[in-house]
Amino acid sequence: MSKVFAAQLLGLPVFGPDGESIGKIRDLVAGLRVDGQPPRVLGIVVELATRRRIFVPMLRVASIEPNAITLATGSVNLRHFTQRPNEVLVVGQLLDARVEVVSTGASAVVVDTAMEPTRTRDWVLGRVAIRERTGRLGRRGPIEVLAWSQIRAPGITELTGQPQAAHQLLAVFDTMRAADVATALQNLPVKRRYEVADALDDERLADVIEELPEDDQKDLLRHLDEERAADVLEAMDPDDAADLLAELPEGDKNRLLELMAPEESAPVRRLLAYSSDTAGGLMTPEPIVLTPDAPIAEALARVRTPDIPPALASMVFVCRPPSATPTGRYLGCVHIQRLLREPPFELVAGAVDTELTSLRPTDSLIEVTRFFATYNLVCAPVVDDEDHLVGAVTVDDVLDHLLPDNWRERASEPEDADA
């Protein structure tokens, strides 16, 4: 669906991928902004049969139909939903909120909001249904649907309960790359840094933590309560989550792994079995994997996914089922340049590079570096002794381990004007 009004979703049943009943939708959770951009829909509040209300991120929503919502996974986090700073309940708080129409200055009330998908697979509250306040007793103005940019909500800070200074920071950070936000966070007072971390949604905070120096990563993780810390670790890339967990005391590490959803903690546990300076410790367990009967068009669609880093999108791996790591027998890889040269209807099997050797999980950092230099790659397969693809190493992770431990701190320091 291209546009969904919030009020239409209330009470709709929520199902897992196999048709199992999860519960009913009770609200939407959005992150409000003060820079005029539409709020991003973070997820849905689902009421289980036990009347317990839980939060399901939008990334877990596979489809929204007029009569039901289907999730991409039947495994959901059963922790009780708790609203966080900078979050607003769309039905519970945003509807009936007073706003102003930018073009006329007229006062109005929000009757409904419509969420729309973006090119980056996010959902935003792009449209707002309002009713102007006429001031006449017994009279109600007509309903008008406007773009979010056409209204002004003076009470936005009060809705979120977020201090104005932190709120302004969040608006600025929302337009910045995660690495730049991480640098800015390092220069903030500790109290303000924690306020920003509390207000960021899990996915955004995970992106930022991945870009922080190790000590700052551990400091922010310790600031979060354990349940939130587990949620953020779930949202991180498995290799980055494993690197961070490996630096924690054994008890803390095991507790957080237990709090993570099993399907999220499983790949992290596999990575923790390897030393951090080996191919197994460097790799991500979530490369792009296709079966040999997949068409080139499907491969191109996968590499175009905005969430996939450019280095990881430079290569797809062809394996026998299953496609999740560890896969079936590894057959080879297809470089993105080859994909662009082949007709979309051809099968990836006909474009497989079977000549390129692969890394082993136990290969050292020096061996991995030589492999990348020898073959001029930005991504490389990691295959075990039984010919199962277990992951892929990307050049950014290699550089991260080759650079001095404090390179992130140095990047955040201002350059000496006299140098």
Automatic annotation (TrEMBL):
<dbReference type="InterPro" id="IPR046342">
    <property type="entry name" value="CBS_dom_sf"/>
</dbReference>
<dbReference type="InterPro" id="IPR000644">
    <property type="entry name" value="CBS_dom"/>
</dbReference>
<dbReference type="InterPro" id="IPR011033">
    <property type="entry name" value="PRC_barrel-like_sf"/>
</dbReference>
<feature type="domain" description="CBS">
    <location>
        <begin position="283"/>
        <end position="350"/>
    </location>
</feature>
<dbReference type="InterPro" id="IPR006669">
    <property type="entry name" value="MgtE_transporter"/>
</dbReference>
<dbReference type="InterPro" id="IPR006668">
    <property type="entry name" value="Mg_transptr_MgtE_intracell_dom"/>
</dbReference>
<dbReference type="InterPro" id="IPR038076">
    <property type="entry name" value="MgtE_N_sf"/>
</dbReference>
<dbReference type="Pfam" id="PF00571">
    <property type="entry name" value="CBS"/>
</dbReference>
<dbReference type="Pfam" id="PF26205">
    <property type="entry name" value="SH3_actinomycetes"/>
</dbReference>
<feature type="domain" description="CBS">
    <location>
        <begin position="352"/>
        <end position="409"/>
    </location>
</feature>
<keyword id="KW-0129">CBS domain</keyword>
<dbReference type="GO" id="GO:0015095">
    <property type="term" value="F:magnesium ion transmembrane transporter activity"/>
</dbReference>
<dbReference type="Pfam" id="PF05239">
    <property type="entry name" value="PRC"/>
</dbReference>
<dbReference type="GO" id="GO:0016020">
    <property type="term" value="C:membrane"/>
</dbReference>
<protein>
    <submittedName>
        <fullName>Mg/Co/Ni transporter MgtE (Contains CBS domain)</fullName>
    </submittedName>
</protein>
<dbReference type="InterPro" id="IPR058838">
    <property type="entry name" value="SH3_actinomycetes"/>
</dbReference>
<dbReference type="Pfam" id="PF03448">
    <property type="entry name" value="MgtE_N"/>
</dbReference>
<dbReference type="InterPro" id="IPR027275">
    <property type="entry name" value="PRC-brl_dom"/>
</dbReference>
